[in-house]
Amino acid sequence: MPQTFARQHAFPADFVWGVATSSFQIEGAAADDGKGPSIWDDFCRRPGAIADGSHGDVACDHYHRLQADLDLLASLGVDAYRFSVSWPRVQPLGQGAWNPRGMDFYERLVDGLLARGIKPYLTLNHWDLPSALQARGGWADRDTVQRFVDYACGIDARLGDRLATITTHNEPWVMAFLGHETGVFAPGIRHRATAMQAAHHLLLSHGLAVQALRAQGCAASLGIVLNLSPVVPATSSEDDAAAARLEDGRLVRWYMDPLFHGRYPVDVWHHLGADAPQVQPGDMAAIATPIDHLGVNYYTRSVVSAAGPWDAQSGGRPLTDMGWEVVPEGLTALLLRLHRDWRLPALYVNENGAAYRDTCAAGRVHDAERTAYIASHIAAVGAAVEQGVPMAGYMVWSLLDNFEWASGYAKRFGIVHVDFDTLQRTPKDSALWYRAFLAAQRMQRSAAAPANLQPATSTP
Ligand code: FCB
After folding, report:
1. 20 to 30 Å CA-CA from 124: which of 23, 87, 257, 295?
2. Which residue from 403, 408, 427 is spatially nearest to 417, judged by alpha carbons?
3. First CA to last CA across the chain, in angstroms?
4. Residue among 181, 247, 325, 351 flagged as catalytic
5. β-strand partners of 426
6. How remote is the CA of residue 170 from the centroid of ligand 1, in Å?
7. Per residue in 201-238, pLDDT tens?
8. Is a pLDDT exceeding 80 seen at residue 4?
């Protein structure tokens, strides 16, 4: 990938390179050491919910392989590791008693990262809500907001002094829309008004948690992670343009406007009618509590047709194993638009990567398509940096092949292959490429730190 190596000078000297995972997708140990069940444990038991009928009971068994996985991380040479805490592992009922053995696991994880010179990037909620809270209404119930704030403060009290960043929620759109409107993700509810109320409570709990964490002296950088895409109409028709505008409202502006402007977008609010959420005085100001960073997860663009679902095959672009188009320039366009339309703090790409059908033979996985995907998206971030977007870091999704939610184990996003029979880890060619890229990046930093701040065109 010489062209990508040539572009590395576009990145600021303190740019953070990492990889990301989430608790439910890799930990396993579903009922070990006092862990309570989560809504994903329950959802996996629903017939037909998961494509391959699988569950997260063992997953990558990361819980029992922590030290080896930390060594694997260190071998990649990453600056940072983004992981999430399983709320029911540390507080089995989502309120009240803490589980010391669960807390100890994250203590070992954070200390193990620091011992290896890797910055811990902690996410509080990557979807595995304690089942006990779902029984009381879950995210649709306003009481869950305060439960989350208490949980955030408990994690900070124990780990906050050693964390680089704390992210409140990962992808509220996914939890609200896929979890409560289409019901294809946990908790599997299909009711639009419930989904919009859940989205509001997720945003509110984010803002109140940021306030509470600051009040108790948390020194970590605080933020939230959104799944965002450029939304484009399938054709130049008026109908497709209107449909794309609404989709942009529901996917992007419904989250960006409250977080950065303290209001919901009027067009979407009117479209929702009676399904718009109940909002109490003070909620919007709380949601707009200033944050230190915004995380963006980007995989592909969103093409919208008023006539119904758009067939990605018709786009003429390469598709990943998820059936998602490969559109690196969409990432540049998205980052530029976010920077233009909202006043942004530091911006991370917190997830970016691709599923492909890998085969592991003789200890090698030749995943050239994934390497090309990652390299082209890093270049797309570099293009945004050159155009003035305050980019702070980039993280590959994911360190390991893992439990890909409703797709089960069939979709492999890892740069490290996992054999789900033996749980053996094998770095794929993409991991070897990323390691070499990061090593070159480090050399460049130490050789010419001031030049790193200059745009590409001014560097010899
Ligand atoms: C994102 C999720 C992450 C992973 C990727 C492929 O929406 O945050 O857990 O499943 O998609």
Report:
1. 257
2. 427
3. 19
4. 351
5. 417
6. 9
7. 999 999 999 999 999 999 999 999 999 999 999 999 99
8. no
